[in-house]
Amino acid sequence: MVSTNYAPEHTGIGPYSTQIAEHLAASGADTHVLSGMPHYPAWRVAEGYRGRWRMRERRGDVTVHRRRHTVPPRQTALRRAVFEASILAHGLVAPPPVRPDVVLSQMPSLAGGVLGGRLARRAGAPHVVVVQDLMGAAAAQSGIQGGGRAAAVAGALEARILRGADVVGVVHESFVDRVMAMGVPRARVHVVPNWTHVKGPSGDRAETREGLGWQPDETVVLHAGNMGLKQGLEVLVEAARLADQEAAPVRFVLMGDGNQRAHLQQLAAGSSALTFLPPAGAEEFPEVLAAADVLAVTQKASVLDMSLPSKLTSYFMTGRPVIASVAAEGGTAQEVLRAGAGTVIAPEDPKALLAEVRALAADPEGAARLGARGPQYVEQRLSSRAGLERITALLRLATAGR
Fold first, then answer.
1. pLDDT of the residue at 306
2. Could you write out the three-class secondary structure of the chain?
3. For residue range 150-168, what is the model confidence (pLDDT) as tens digits?
């Protein structure tokens, strides 16, 4: 497997890559991972990995080959290009000393896709690509500085990688048309939804709220995960400022890390209705989610078909209603509505967001019904067993013709 993100990263793509590799190893496969140094979502190399050039470590039954790369503290198209180039260069200079029977690349990393294709060709092995995010579309839609110029270059390279793959998996149906437009035959494209990689909450909700300093009479709106450009989290800051002016208590909470955290903290200075929390550990994460009253997922209005937030699978597991401040025609809105576990409102509209929070707070029975559909949807569609078997099926499909 080639994946820039891997354990100990516990949010974003890392947990999926880790569970896939561990699942394959548990099935008896000699499983190797070519990865970067842990850095997400803080965009800082984790303690214990700093200053290391190359590492080979054993995590469970998986051998992980790590290669050093740049970690940009702030995202621009140029810095992202340097990040990708450093991953590619080090991977080309020092590939893992193994001859694989099949290579699985996790994208959005373009460098990872190129490296995976090269490793597969050298070994005469099939190449399977799982598309978590579309980088060309991301550059165009996320609002990253210099993204317009980078979109064409990233899109062209992305298309070349996907056309050269034996099998392409996409995490949502909304990606299919764009991937086919790159010249990939429909027969090679398969939908492989992500699954819930966290356990459901099991602790005392009131106790967790008390420990976090959340009052019983206040409505808590929580956003958990990466604080990046495409999330458009300014809408939550502006909604909190509106809540400052009202009597009924609403608390907005941003939990996590990312390259926009400092900017958001500066923007929120003086607001009493907004608080920040550091990323929660794996055990505490579902408990904190379940302690909130509403879980928020936000995206810029321009984000349509380039990304599906991995946080949704965790949100659904907790039994709390979701408010999606996203484009109605995008994959995120489709997923929330298909689950029936939340509501969709116009993106970048703080008044609409606060009004929806108030509506859910005024109708606790309706909010509870929405929240209860999340775990049901997980059981039906997003179990880890089903998700991992879908990935295994892709590998079997790729190797069947060899």
1. 54
2. CECCCCCCCCCCCHHHHHHHHHHHHHCCCCCEEEECCCCCCCCCCCCCCCCCCEEEEEECCEEEEEECCCCCCCCEHHHHHHHHHHHHHHHHHCCCCCCCCCEEEEECCHHHHHHHHHHHHHHCCCEEEEECECHHHHHHHCCCECHHHHHHHHHHHHHHHHHHCCEEEECCHHHHHHHHHCCCCHHHEEECCCCCCCCCCCCCHHHHHHHHCCCCCCEEEEEECCCCCCCCCHHHHHHHHHHHCCCCCEEEEEECCCCCHHHHHHHCCCCCCEEEECCCCCCCHHHHHHHCCEEEEECCCCCCCCECCCHHHHHHHHCCCEEEECCCCCHHHHHHHHHCCEEEECCCCHHHHHHHHHHHHHCHHHHHHHHHHHHHHHHHHCCHHHHHHHHHHHHHHHHHCC
3. 667 778 889 999 999 999 9
What does the alpha-carbon distance between residue 105 and residue 110 come to, in Å, rounded to a whole number? 10
The pLDDT of residue 118: 97
d(CA 10, CA 277): 16
Q: Listing from the earlier edge strand, what are the strands of the sheet with 274-277?
A: 274-277, 250-255, 219-224, 294-298, 322-325, 342-345
Among the listed ranges 139-148, 168-177, 343-352, which one has the minimum average pLDDT value? Answer: 139-148
Residue 148 exposure: Cα atoms within 13 Å on the Cβ side: 1
User: In angstroms, how far is the first alpha carbon of the chain from the final one?
Assistant: 18
The amino acid sitting at 351 is K
- Which residues lie closer than 8 Å to 387 by C-beta, 6 or more apart? 192, 193, 194, 195
Tokens 């990865």 belong to 35
Residue in the structure block whose two tokens are 């499909």: 397
Q: Residue for token digits 């206040």? A: 218
Structure tokens at 355: 């009004």
Which pLDDT tens digit goes with each residue over 230-283?
Answer: 889 999 999 999 999 987 899 999 999 888 899 999 999 999 999 999 999 888
Provide the 10 A C-beta neighbour count for residue 342.
Answer: 29
